[in-house]
Write a structure and sequence with these properties.
alpha/beta, Rossmann fold, six-stranded parallel β-sheet, 5 helices, 6 strands, 41% helix, globular
Length: 156
């Protein structure tokens, strides 16, 4: 995967999953595709990550050249998830072009940070949903900017 044609997603687990936010998400994904982005990286978490992965899968119906990469923090990420959320995650995993476990083991306090860092390192662009400036999402955005990534926050 070429960093210059890759975009990653970061956002809160809780976000207003409504038409306005989803419309902005689809708009930004299509804009990036039209600018030559073909690799989209999602972190496999609940909330915004899940919405983004679903959106990329939907966009692939129109843009067959795009690929979905899942960067997963650890093997037991879904351990405490509901049966429904686990089902949706497995469905997304089955439709992803790549699944990469960033750590080779079970959950540790550092695995989410490692996943976020890897996404920011591997992509030049970031589509985010961030309203809380003291969150993990805000830290990921700051890290992406330090690496020179272009960040688009659709929460604004």
């Amino acid at each position: 995967m070429d960093r210059e044609t890759a975009c990653f997603f970061t956002g809160h687990r809780a976000f207003p999953n409504n038409d306005g936010v989803m419309e902005k998400l689809y708009y930004q994904i299509e804009k990036k595709i039209n600018e030559g982005v073909c690799d989209f990286i999602a972190g496999g978490a609940l909330g915004f990550d899940t919405a983004c992965a679903k959106a990329v899968i939907k966009c692939r119906e129109k843009y067959s050249q795009i690929r979905l990469h899942l960067y997963l923090p650890c093997y037991d990420q879904m351990k405490k998830w509901s049966a429904y959320d686990s089902y949706i995650a497995r469905l997304i995993m089955s439709k992803a072009d790549e699944k990469l476990y960033v750590t080779e083991g079970l959950y540790t306090p550092q695995c989410m940070h490692k996943r976020n860092r890897k996404m920011a390192e591997d992509a030049k662009y970031c589509i985010a949903y961030c309203t809380n400036l003291k969150s993990g999402t805000a830290k990921t955005i700051a890290m992406a900017r330090e690496l020179g990534d272009e960040v688009i926050n659709i929460a604004k």
